[in-house]
Amino acid sequence: MSGPPDERPAAAYLAGVLPGTGHLLHRRLMQSVPPYRWLLAAARRLGVTPRGLVIALPYGFLAAFFLVPFLIVLKISFAEVVIAAPPYTPLFDLVDDGVDFYLSVKLNLATYWSLWTNNLYVIAYLNSVKIAVISTVITLLVGFPISYAMARASEEVRPTLLMLVILPFWTSFLIRVYAWIGILKNEGLLNSFLLWLGVISKPLVILNTDWAVYIGIVYSYLPFMILPLYANLERMDLTLLEAAADLGCRPIKAFWMVTVPLAMPGIIAGCFLVFIPAVGEFVIPDLLGGSDTLMIGKTMWVEFFGNRDWPVSSAVAVVLLLLLIVPIVLFQRQQAKVQEAAR
Q1: What is the pLDDT of residue 15?
Q2: Which of 172, 214, 238, 269 is the most core-located residue (most Cβ within 10 A)?
Q3: Burial class (CB in 10 A: 0-12, 13-18, 19+), 112
């Protein structure tokens, strides 16, 4: 006769903390998975517990593929541009003047100062934030009804709806953006359809404008808004809406008083997932936007590949990263304070 199911976390088994099945699984891993055995033995020699080793793995991944590249870009941003390979001066230099042998560190701060004194970069930053904010708001307005309808659909239909949301990712991002050129140009499908309906008398000028950039960003990043919203709305207790209706709350008021507050974590996650990549977007404004559409991603591309000014391009990237990370960190701290106060 078997007992009740074991609901203890699998991480505890891997760490060898729990008895019984945990020890059996731990022994099997030690016997059949050599990398696991070597990694665990090295961690024990360093005084690291298995739990600490598991926690250190994602931090090691972030350090290797985020922190180290960022430090390289940061180093290049303090260099000076030269006609050489690589096209920038070294940050550290060993100097031997015959008397002393020392390490020289040369930081060029003029690059960062030029970002604030040159209107080109200031306008690019402001325009990028403006386009990203408007695109995020439009994506939220479009994605929320879709997510709500998916969450209220029957369980048999939901997997199909999710597949339809993810289906565009099966096609190359570049091809999907190119397709919008054929749709939005003067002789494209949209203008031809509107002329056939008689809605317009002459073709609309949409391509090479900011509106084309908004359409491209909303279409490309709409799944990033729908998925977190759907995951949040699917778990919502519908009895709360019934209780609000029993208390005399109208459907619209119940939506604003019950549904929106409960969906706020999904709204915040979706807005972050859309806003952050939209700020540094390059492909969409380059293909769908005009010459007046100035965004920071396009500016970085021109500086890096056109002018071969790697220090300026790196400084632009560092400032953009700081502009994105600082508000997110402040927001997370504010949310943590609110949660602690609620407890």
Answers
A1: 45
A2: 214
A3: middle
Cα separation of 242 and 258, whole Å?
Answer: 11
Closest Cα partner for 314 from 125, 126, 123, 115?
115
Q: 47 in a domain, yes or no?
A: yes
The CATH number covering residue 316 comes to: 1.10.3720.10
Angle between helix 264-279 and helix 210-234 axes, rounded to 10 deg: 150
* Residue 257 belongs to some domain of the structure: yes
Q: What's phi and psi for 155, nearest 5 deg?
A: -65, -25
Q: Please give the DSSP secondary-structure letter assigned to residue 87.
A: S
pLDDT of 192 higher than 70: yes
Whether the full predicted model's pTM is greater than 0.85, yes or no, is no
25 pLDDT above the threshold of 80: no
Confidence at 7, pLDDT banded by 50, 70, 90: low
Residue 285 within any structural domain of the chain: yes
**pLDDT band at 14, cuts 50/70/90?**
very low
The dihedral built from the CA positions of residue 222, 225, 228 and 232, taken in this order, carries a sign that is negative
CA angle centred on 320, ends 314 and 325, rounded to 5°? 125
Going by C-alpha positions, the residue among 105, 114, 69, 230 that lies closest to residue 161 is 230
Does one domain contain both 52 and 142? no
pLDDT(223) > 90: yes
Beta strands (DSSP E) in 143-197 are: none
Q: Which domain holds residue 34?
A: 10-77
Nearest partner of 184 among 206, 210, 214, judged by Cα? 206
